[in-house]
Each structure stands twice: as C-alpha cells, then as structure tokens.
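As a next step, the fold was encoded as tokens, giving this record:
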Amino acid sequence: MKKILLLSGGLDSGYILSTLEEPVYALTFDYGQRHRIEVEYASELACRYGVIEHKIVTIDLPFESALTGMDVVSDLPPIVSNRNAIFLSVAAGWAESIGCRDIYMGANASDYEDFVDCRPVVLQRLAKAFPYQINVHTPLAEMTKAEVVSACFAANFDLHQTMSCYNGNTCGECAPCKARYGL
C-alpha cells in the first residue's frame, strides 16, 4: 500500500522512514528555512531507505518567521504559521494524483504546545476537509522528543543521518538540539 512521508531530514521523520514498509514516497519542502541543510539530509535518507520517489517542493512563503529570518534561533519557539497544514495540503494533492490514501508525518507530543498544526485533532480535521479521503498518520504523537530519541537508540537508528538544528549546524542552543542531546 502506497504511503507518503513528509520528510524534513530531521530526527522524527527520518526515524519514521526507517520503520515504514515499502512503497514509500517522500515529500520535502524548501520554504526558505535558514536550516536548508535538512533538505540535503532528506535526500540522503530517501536514497538510503529506498524511497520510490522523493519530491522537493520549493515554496516562497509570503511571510517571515523565526525559521526564515536571519536571526539565530535559541529557546523561543520558531513558529512558521500553518507550516504543517500547508505541507499536508500539498501532500494530499500528490496523494490523490498517485492513488495514495496514507500520509505520515513526524509530529510528536513535544510539538503540540508551540505548533498547533501538529496536534492530532487539527491534523484529523484537516484530513477530513480534503475532497480526496486521506488518512494522516502520526506514529510519534504520543511520544515526547526524549522518548523518540530513546526509540532511535533502541532501534539502532543513527541520529547522525538526520539534522534537526534550527540553525543548521548542531548549535546546542535551539530547542531541537537541546532535546536531541539531552541538554
């Protein structure tokens, strides 16, 4: 059964990719994020795990955010308004065109407070709003980032094949780096 994974190149989506059975299609977005290096990591992951087709979509968002600006991100939540809703909308269109009903994304419980469009209730409502029936799967939804990192270690998933740093350099200061390295 076909499935599409929203593959950022980060820890969550990379780990999910390692657990999915083929055939997997992957969708990555270049939305002007300062940490564009994650797009390269997504491409490498797609090759490593035998993704059938990997599309990289460039979107010129009509607004700025903490992730698309020039300032270094530290502890403040780097919100890109409706980012996941936008990504899911594009994925739903692709799903319909290839006859796929299952879309996976790496939202986890640690994301809910800052990223409203990562909450399961929001994602399920979005899925129901599309004219083409899709199922949105968030296998990490009940796990915190620390629990995802533990699951990666338990599954021998190499964290170095992903990039989660909002500054694109494993800064040790942004929230994803702190969660990833237990800082």
